[in-house]
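Team,

Forwarding the record for the chain on the shared tracking sheet. I've put the sequence and predicted structure together so nobody has to dig through attachments.
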Amino acid sequence: MGLMFDSIVKSRTLPTVVGPLFPCGANLAIGNALAAAAAHILVGAAEKDRLRSDTYQRLNIGTMAYSAISIWGFMMAWPFSGPAGAFCHVYSLLVCLNGWRTGVAGIRKTKTFTGEIVSGTISAAKRLVDLKEGGLVSTGYALATGFLGIMALHEAAILLLKPINSSVLSRKYIGLGRLVLGTSMSFILKHASDQGRLGRTTFIQLNGAMALSAMSFAGSMIAPMFICQANVASRVLKLAGLFAVSGFFFGSVGMKNYIEKKKIIDV
């Protein structure tokens, strides 16, 4: 997909204003918007002393992973590009690391942080395949989490096993970070669905962020068709369709819970 966009840009069939947006700008914008939503939620959790909750520990870890992978992506670009963006990710990484350490230390002082990651990963894997508690909605979240996780593993495998053109290497890492953060958020929502907590503000916000991110990414994948009448591979169209369906799912569940919560408040 990256090579396809490269050929479009090099052939100058995209307007100069729009060209830089595909795909690097889209990766940056969508990933940073998703991270900003996570940061907003974590600020509220810190103010209310809720960082010890599994929800916010997982959100901190997902945001840390996004920042760490993005930093590596910036460093892969030669000459070094985006120092301001890299600095922001370093700051985000340190803040989220501190938030995660604070949450873990608050409830499990006898465990090492490495042990906490291992036990948390095992627990998350078991929770992901457990579809008995949350019904159809929980199954939908499990499928979305699996889809995003497989995409992340696919991107990681490509980066590790295949030679990548230096012109697309940075954006591939940034895209991988976005997928890891999205997988983390989707799993958090799956867990919340199992426990019947989707009506809480945190999860309504997470659903909204995931919906906007997935739909925006789907739009960025098919935009060249409409902007410059470029040919888009069928596999890219199918992938865009899967992201669009995922976005619709997140959005519909989030809106449903938002409306129900608003009715209760109005009453």
